[in-house]
Amino acid sequence: MTAITALRSATLFAGFSAAFLLPAAIAQERAELASPDGRITAEIWSEDGRPHYSVSFDGEEVVAPSRLGFRLLEGPNLETGLELVETGAASHDDEWELPWGERRVARDHHNEVSARFEDAESPELGFTVRMRAFDTGIGFRYEVSNPERGEHAITAEITEFVLPPESDAWWIEAGEYNRYEYLYRSTPLSDALVAHTPFTARLPEGGPHVSIHEAALVDYSSMWLDQRRGGVFRARLAPSHDGVPVRVGGEFATPWRTIQIADSAVGLINSDIILNLNEPNVLGDVSWVEPGKYIGIWWGMHVNTMTWESGEIHGATTENAREYIDFAAENGFDGVLIEGWNLGWDGNWFVNNEVFDFTTAYPDFDLEGVAAYARERGVRLVGHHETSGGVSNYEDQMEDAFDLYERLGVRQVKTGYVDDAGGMTRRDEDGHIRYEWHDGQFAVNHHQRVLQAAAERRISINAHEPVKDTGLRRTYPNAITREGARGQEYNAWGVPPNPPEHVAILPYTRMLSGPFDYTPGIFDMTSYADRMEGARVSHTLAKELALYVVIYSPVQMVADLPENYERFDDAFDFIRAVPADWEESIALDGEIGEHVVFARQERGSDDWYLGALTDEDPRDLSVALDFLEEGRTYTATIWRDAGDAHWDTNPYAYEIEERQVTSADTLDLPLAPGGGAAVRFAAE
How is domain 292-580 classified at the architecture level of CATH? Predict the structure, then answer.
C-alpha cells in the first residue's frame, strides 16, 4: 500500500466509529444538521431519485437545493435512482495544537450527519454523504465503499452550489494558462464563469459572506466552479491527459467540499474549518520544521540586476552568496534562498524541463563551501528546485537532490513548476510524454510524493506554481507554505503590476486556503521602472511593512535587495523584529477589496503585532486594542504613512511614533491612498 493510498484509506474511515447509525430504513425523509451555535443548518435528501442538500444561515437559505452525485466512465452513474436509506449522527469538541501556524491551539467543534444513498435494486450502487457543521461553515464529502469494483473512473462530479444570482463575487478564472496567478475580479455573481476556489461571495440585501473551497485534497483532482446558469455552480474537476479527471479504487473518499459562512467579511478569516477537516499530523516529531524569515538572491533577477543563467551578472555566485549570508546573519534572519545555482538555467529555462540538474552547481558557485559558510554564520541555505513543469525529470533526481540538501543542513526547499497550465510533463511507462494540469490528480499526487520524500530528510517544502492549499499542512506539517496567487514579482514586470486593492482582496479569497509566500518587504518602489515599462510597487513603504502581519506565511521573505534597506534603516527595524510564527491571530476589521486589519500575538511571547492596509482610497481607522492583555501596559511602536504619503506620488513618506497603551485604548490609524500601518506592542 502506498503512502497516498494509506492516507486516503485513513481519511475514508476516520470518524465512522464516532458516528452512530440509525437502523436501516427505506426512503427516509431527510437528514438534518445544525452547527453547535444553531445558526447554520443543513438538510440532505433525495428528490425523484436525485440526492440533494441545502444550507441556511439564521433561517435564511444560503445554498438553495443543490444536486449531489457522480458520473462514471463505465457502469451506472451515481446520480439518479438513489434513495436516502440510512442516517447517522455524531458530535465532536476538542482542541489540538499546531506545531506552527496562525495560532497555537485550534478548536474542532462540530456536529455531524451521515446520509447513505443506495439504488433500491442494486444496493452496492451508492455512496454516503458525510457532512459536518461548524459555527463558521459546512464541510461535506462523499464516501464510496464498493471493494469488489477495482476502479472508479470519474468523469464528472455532480456537486452543485446554488447561490443567489444577485450576490457579489470575488474570483479568478480557472482552466487558463497562468494557473492561479490572476488579479481577482470583483463582479456580480452572475458574471463569474469557471472559477478557482476559494470563491468568495456576499449575498444580496445585507446577507452573509460565503466562501466555497475544499479541504484535504488527496489522490483526487482539484475542484473548479462552473456556473451553468444563474447562480448554479457545479464542481468541475481539473482535467487529466486522457480526459478522465479522477481514477480511484473501489473504496475512496473525496476531498471535503467546504462552505464558509459569516456575518462579516472578517468572519470568514477567523475560522479553522479547512484545517479541522484534515487528518492530524502523520509525521510525528516535526520540531525540525522551522518558521522564520529569509532573504534571497531572487529579486535581482526580476529587476534585471542579476540573471538566473550563467554569465556576467549571474546571481548565484559564491561571492554574492557570502554577501547575502553576511546580511542575513547581521540582521537576525534565518535563511538565504539562492536561485540559479544549478545547471539548466541557460537558454530558455521556461522550457528546460528535461535539462535541469538538481545536484550539479555552475562552476562559479561552490555549493559545499557556501553551505559551510552559512552554518558558520548561524543561518541556513534555503534550497531551490525549479522544474519548469518537468515532473518526471524531477522525480528521477528528487531522492538524490534531497539527500544532498540533507547532508548540507538545508531544512527548507522552494520548488517551482513554471509552465503553462496543462503543460506539466511526465513520461509514461512506454516513455511517451504526457501533459498534465498543475491541479489535476497526477499533480496532486506528485506534490504528495515530494512532501513524503522531503519529510524523510527533515526538509520542509515551499511550493511555487503549486496545487492550491487545502489544509494538508495539518497532516504534513512540512508543507510549510506555497505560492498559488499573483505575488510580488508581478510588480517588477509591469504586466501590469498588482494594483493597490490586490492585497486587500487576498485575505478574503486566496488566504482563506492557507499560507502564501507573497514575498513582501520591497522598499524600492519605482527605480527599476525604466528597465520594464509600467513596473512598480503600488504601495507605500508603510504598507509593505504591514504585509508581514496581514499576509500570513511561516516563512516570510525579506524580498528587496540588501542595499535598498540601508536607505530606510528605521523602517527596516520592523522587519527585523516581526516574527513569522504566532500564538493567536485575529482579523479585526475590513471589507473585501477595501481594507483589512490584523492583530497577531508572537508565539512564546506576550508581544502583539498589528497590520492594517487599504486600497487606493485613503482611510481613517480606529482600532480598539481590547485584544491586548487586560491590566497590562504595552509600548506601541507605530510605523505609518505620513500626511502627504501616496502610493503613486510619494510612497516613501512615513512616520514612526511610540506611545504607551493598554487594552482600554483605541488606536487611530490614518492610511494614505495605497497605504498602511504596522505596529509592535511590546509588553512591559
Answer: Alpha-Beta Barrel (3.20)
Secondary structure class of 132 (helix, strand, coil)? strand
CB 617 within 8 A of CB 330: no
Q: Are 582 and 602 in contact (CB under 8 A)?
A: yes
Instruction: Clarify whether 309 is annotated catalytic.
Output: no
pLDDT at position 441 is 98
Q: Which CATH architecture describes the domain 3-276?
A: Distorted Sandwich (2.70)
Query: Could you report the per-residue pLDDT of 494-535, keeping only the tens digit for each?
Result: 889 999 999 999 999 999 999 999 999 999 999 888 788 889
Strands 256-262 and 209-215, sheet pairing: antiparallel
What is the identity of the amino acid at 483? E
Residue that is written with C-alpha cell 492516507 in the block: 7
The angle subtended at Cα 181 by Cα 179 and Cα 182, nearest 5°, is 110
Catalytic residue among 86, 489, 501, 602: 489
Query: Beta strands of 120-159 (E only): which ranges?
Result: 126-134, 137-145, 152-157
Task: Give the per-residue SS3 of 170-223.
Answer: EECECCCCCCCCCCCEEEEHHHCCEECCCEEEECCCCCCEEEEEEECCCCCCCE
Give the CA radius of gyration of the chain.
25
For residue 228, the one-letter residue type is: R
Distance CA 596, CA 425 (A): 40
Where do the H-state alpha helices sit in 46-114?
Answer: none
**How far is residue 92's CA from residue 108's CA, in Å, rounded to a whole number?**
7
Q: Please give the Cα distance from 333 to 327 (Å, whole number).
A: 8
Per-residue pLDDT for 587 more than 70?
yes
Give the dihedral sign, CA 577/582/584/588. positive
Helical axes 367-376 vs 391-408, angle rounded to 10°: 50
pLDDT surpassing 50 at residue 123: yes
pLDDT in tens, 414-457: 999 999 999 999 999 999 999 999 999 999 999 999 999 999 99
Q: Give the count of alpha carbons within 13 A of 601, CB side only.
A: 17
CA–CA separation, 372 and 367 (whole Å):
9
Report the distance separating Cα 459 and Cα 264, nearest Å. Answer: 38
Instruction: Please give the full DSSP string across 89-143, using - where no structure is assigned.
Output: EEEEEEEEE-SSSS-SEEEEEEEEEEEEEEESS-TTSEEEEEEEEETTEEEEEEE
> Looking at residue 36, what is its pLDDT?
98
The predicted structure's pLDDT at residue 531: 80
**DSSP annotation string for 3-54:** HHHHHHHHHHHTTTTTSEEPPP-SS---EEEE-TTSSEEEEEEEETTEEEEE
Displacement of CA 627 from its chain's centroid (Å): 26
Strand 555-557 relative to strand 292-297: parallel, antiparallel, unpaired?
Answer: parallel
Using DSSP's 3-state secondary structure scheme, residue 162 falls into strand
The three grid cell numbers given for residue 549, joined into one nine-digit string:
502581519
At residue 255, what is the residue type? P
Q: How far is CA 677 from CA 166, 445, 608, in A?
A: 35, 41, 14
How far is Cα 283 from Cα 179, in angstroms, rounded to an integer?
A: 30
Mean pLDDT across the stretch 106-126?
93
Do 3-276 and 292-580 share a fold? no
Domain ranges of the chain: 3-276, 292-580
Q: How many angstroms separate the first and last alpha carbons of the chain?
A: 55
Share of the chain above pLDDT 90, in %: 91
As a residue count, the chain comes to 684
Specify the pTM.
Answer: 0.95
CB contact at 8 A, 231 and 162: yes
Note whether 50 and 69 are within 8 A (CB).
Answer: yes
Give phi and psi for 542, each to the nearest 5.
Answer: -65, -35
Measured from the Cβ of residue 437, the count of other Cβ atoms closer than 10 Å reads 26
**Residues 465-475 pLDDT 10s:** 999 999 999 99
